[in-house]
Amino acid sequence: MFDQFRNKFRLDDDKWNDYTGCFKRMKVSARTALLKEGDIPKNMFLIEKGCIRVWFNNDGKDVTTQFFFENNMVSSIESFRKGYPSPVTIETIEPCVLWYIHKKDADRIIAEVSELPVFREMIIDTVFERTFDYMKQFFSFIKDTPQQRYLNLVKEKPQVVQRVPQHYIASYLGVSTVHLSRIKSKLAKEK
Amino acid sequence: MFDQFRNKFRLDDDKWNDYTGCFKRMKVSARTALLKEGDIPKNMFLIEKGCIRVWFNNDGKDVTTQFFFENNMVSSIESFRKGYPSPVTIETIEPCVLWYIHKKDADRIIAEVSELPVFREMIIDTVFERTFDYMKQFFSFIKDTPQQRYLNLVKEKPQVVQRVPQHYIASYLGVSTVHLSRIKSKLAKEK
DNA sequence: GGCGGGCAATAACATTTGTTATCAAATACG
DNA sequence: CGTATTTGATAACAAATGTTATTGCCCGCC
Fold it and tell me: What is the pLDDT of residue A109?
């Protein structure tokens, strides 16, 4: 599971085994909350198999903001770092096989490796990328119509359209399920 | 101008003077672009007097995404770090007095101070805060009505409502100027 | 002090999107 | 295998928001 990351890091075997040994494997069924809105994150997850969505409660309706698939790391990252209550719930969509690491281990690893400038850069870059993702998603919400957002999703994240139930997609796109149906049927006609 | 930051940092006077000496003062008139969409950021700005908006072009219409006022640092931060073309334009609204620092000086300072764990934490936290801001703005776009977003703005950033022309505010809220007018008149009647 | 242009309010109408309800199809699971 | 549940499509109507056009105001500038 971790071999895919091996060549990114120049760590000696002892360190590498120490760090990867902090991850534990678990299986969970579909629709299981790994972190609940308002709770303080204890773990970070790496997906071996399955998919996960991130959502928050808006007046009783859930609003999905992100999807994750195999090999993605998942956490409510800002809360994880600062120990704040999470603004979102993290929940499996399909049955999943996950690897998780406890916050205290993650903190230790980050502190150790960030003594090295190359890791420091990497950490900062990672956070910047996260910011950039939010920015892009936010901009797309402002400038694109729901139909355009749907087309972008089909193009950029085809897995989502293939694997995720449509009502989650509708809430991710910011429209009602009915309207997403309309968009799809309109696109089908045009084609 | 920099005294307000003095007590946040435990630097000896030599370093402090070195770093603050990298900032130059300039005056610019209203509606001046400090950075244009597509250009690579060369400078970062600190506002002594005036206000600034960040916007991007959407099919000929401009969409405002942020406002900045006195004592704010302004940059297209993700692009500034990576040397990417900026996705946004940074433009003065009022005549401004600004301090700016060149990227090469900023890079040197960041590299120097991030040897110290306390600064490293500070830098990472700053980026996280930025991410958190985007997230909040994004979530508010999804969950709040335009009227609610307007009320939030009045409450949280009264300066914007007082100093910024209404059509910029409308585009910031994601509605037409006509609809913002409607919202205001509706609120006035209810009151 | 007058004038042109940017700015804001409003009305009328068009379009988009949401809501509710109903039905059909797909899927899960005992 | 059959039944319950989830999922998706569609129609009809309601509400929100955009577009265009008009008017009046205010403010900077000659």
Answer: 93
Question: Could you tell me what percent of chain A has a pLDDT over 70?
Answer: 99
How do residues B114-133 score in pLDDT, each as one tens digit? 888 888 888 888 888 888 88
**Are B88 and B65 a contacting pair, CB within 8 Å?**
yes
| Cα B97–chain centre separation | 15
**In the numeric block, which tokens belong to residue A8?**
């990114």
| CA separation for the pair A108, A106 (Å, rounded) | 5
Using the structure, give the distance in angstroms from the CA atom of B60 to the C1' atom of C3, rounded to a whole number: 30
Stated as kind and residue range, the H or E segment containing A110 is: helix A103-113
DSSP letters along B61-107, please? EEEEEEEE-TT-EE--HHHHHHTPPPSSEEEESS-EEEEEEEHHHHH
Determine contact: B116 vs chain A, CB below 8 A. Answer: no
Contact partners, residue B91, CB within 8 Å, separation at least 6? B31, B32, B33, B34, B52, B53, B54, B55
Q: Å between B38 CA and C6 C1'?
A: 28
User: Does the beta-carbon distance from A138 to B137 stay under 8 Å?
Assistant: yes
Q: Are strands B52-58 and B73-74 parallel, antiparallel or unpaired?
A: unpaired
Compute the Cα dihedral for B101, B103, B104, B109 and give only its sign: positive
- The CA-based angle B110-B113-B117, given to 5 degrees, is 120
Is the CB of residue A61 less than 8 Å away from at least one CB of chain B?
Answer: no
Contact A6, A16 (CB under 8 A): yes
A78:B138 CB<8 A: no
Q: At what angle do helices A103-113 and A117-143 cross, to 10 degrees?
A: 120
> Using CA atoms, how far apart are residues A54 and B135, in angstroms rounded to an integer?
13
Q: Tokens at residue A17, please?
A: 């085994």
